[in-house]
Design a protein that fits this description.
Pfam families: Pyr_redox_2. By secondary structure, the protein is α/β, with parallel strands linked by helices. It has nine helices and 21 strands.
Length: about 400
């Protein structure tokens, strides 16, 4: 009898966890199912590139997981019952209330549904703004940008990593457009002085107008209105002001935070349901200095490693992982020719050192390629240590019988 592991969501974290579990556990002892609505892997950190018309390398899951023992289930997750230990899935091409649903039973669930854009309830955002937190959103924006004539105004709302990358990518790819960036604080105010200076130089060279200390209070079809009532022209508004986690966890009996993240222990296991592991943006877990890990690929992949290794250890009676996910740098693309690597402390605070210019752009490109390679080659990069599952954990759930 096999221990059933279901991984829901196949972004960086879910796909990484599924591949690592297949690497750690013997295929005769476990059945690993990876559920995702799309048939190929989406490089979310490159969606701003997709939006300006660049092509991304296709990475079909059928090829990535061929021969790994991971079973792919294409479908949209519509519900999770953590008390019955089931996941409800509707076929990816299903539509409407009559779409046929299927229930998957699990002994261990890896919850990796991630996050999407967060409009924060700002009036007009849902109706008029574009998002690049998903491939459909990036493709929709791509079509709209392609139809813009010279001189048309584009406003990017949000001065974090996503906003900065989107604004610079668009300004470089479409120098004929009038690109503006609206930020609540100062431009790059989380960076070191060197990082801020370089970001300012690149933004100025690209002709981007920066509205600092500016909150957007409403979005209309042809402009945004700031908190002080100023109307900023916008043929296209791109909203990058934060992320919201997938809402399904709120409908369960899992212990969650006010933001809907699943509260997890240092091994990424739910504090309320030990057979559930939350990773990536879906998880609220503490990092160095007692600070919550931020929503990012930099946080997500290490949590996937942590969860997979903890599940394997609990199922096989092996050694539990003790590493705390930490930060090393923030990698920021500023178009294809410029970049910024801001070095940070373990708890993500900027230090004085920063790498800038073309070398930083190449560094960021290597990081992106490395992350995608790690997902696309799930059985490579770590030693093959397939261990046998302890008999009394097969149906009890990882961590119930075996002590942490």
């Amino acid at each position: 009898m096999q221990h059933r592991i279901v991984v829901i969501g196949a972004g960086y974290t879910g796909a990484t966890a599924a591949g690592r579990l297949a690497r750690r556990l013997h295929h005769e002892d476990v059945a690993i199912t990876l559920v995702n609505a799309e048939p190929d892997f989406v490089e979310r950190v490159r969606l701003h590139q997709l939006a300006v018309g660049q092509s991304l390398k296709p990475r079909p899951f059928s090829e990535m997981f061929a021969g790994t023992g991971v079973a792919l289930k294409l479908g949209k997750v519509t519900g999770v019952d953590v008390d019955r230990r089931t996941v409800t899935v509707v076929a990816a091409d299903g539509a409407g209330a009559d779409a046929e649903a299927e229930e998957l039973e699990y002994d261990t669930l890896v919850y990796a549904l991630g996050s999407g854009w967060n409009d924060h309830g700002v009036p007009g955002t849902a109706e008029h703004a574009y998002e690049i937190a998903s491939r459909p959103g990036a493709l929709r924006l791509r079509e709209r940008l392609a139809g813009l004539g010279a001189g048309q105004p584009v406003v990017v709302v949000g001065g974090g990593l996503t906003g900065v990358e989107a604004a610079t990518e668009i300004a470089e790819a479409r120098p004929d457009l009038d690109v503006a960036l609206a930020v609540r604080g100062g431009l790059g105010d989380w960076l070191s002085p060197k990082g801020r200076r370089h970001l300012r130089k690149v933004v100025d060279n690209l002709g981007i107008t920066v509205h600092e200390d500016t909150a957007v209070a409403a979005v209309e079809a042809d402009h945004v209105t700031t908190a002080d009532g100023t109307a900023v022209p916008a043929a296209v508004t791109i909203w990058t002001a934060g992320f919201a986690v997938h809402p399904i966890a709120r409908a369960t009996t899992l212990e969650i935070t006010g933001t809907g993240q699943i509260v997890a222990d240092p091994t990424m296991r739910s504090v309320s349901h030990p057979e559930v592991y939350a990773i990536g943006d879906a998880a609220m877990v503490m990092g160095p200095g007692g600070k919550p890990l931020r929503m990012s690929c930099a946080s997500g992949v290490p949590t996937a490693w942590q969860a997979a290794d903890a599940i394997a250890a609990r199922l096989t009676g092996g050694k539990m992982p003790t590493t705390t996910p930490r930060y090393f740098n923030q990698c920021i693309s500023l178009g294809r020719k410029e970049g910024l690597i801001q070095y940070v402390t373990a708890d993500d605070r900027a230090v004085g050192a920063a790498l800038t210019g073309r070398l930083a752009a190449k560094y960021k490109e290597l990081v992106c390629k490395g992350a995608a390679w790690g997902v696309a080659n799930p059985l490579m990069g770590i030693p093959a240590r397939k261990r046998r599952v302890v008999a009394d954990t097969v149906r009890e759930g990882a961590g119930v019988k075996t002590a942490a």
